[in-house]
Amino acid sequence: MPPKIPRRPIELPDGRKLKTLAEAMAWLAKEVPKSEHKMEKVQTAAHLVTRAAEHGGRMIFAQMGMLQAIHRHLDTLPQDQPWSVVGWRFVCKQCGAAGSVNIVPNWHDRINSRTPFQPGWKPWW
Hints:
two-stranded antiparallel sheet, 4 helices, 34% helix, 3% strand
């Protein structure tokens, strides 16, 4: 049976791409540290990829599971701080500039700034 191929390859943070489910399983087995194999996101990804490869499971679920396993540490960012503080800790992979993160501005983070459509806010037009 030929390996199943997702419509879009799954891109890893280092730029490599996983083009088949076999590559995805190999990445989970080799690249994820053994101490993290019991993490829920890694276990779920392994289950969904195996199900898609061997039992005709949905490919989109396998892709979503892999993306969660790849980015399993993103929810460990400081949740008690606003993005205007946390964003400067990120560094762009291409240019090396600090704070190069595409986020929506949080109006509540700004000091002496009115929140849109609240009392005291005036539109610019």
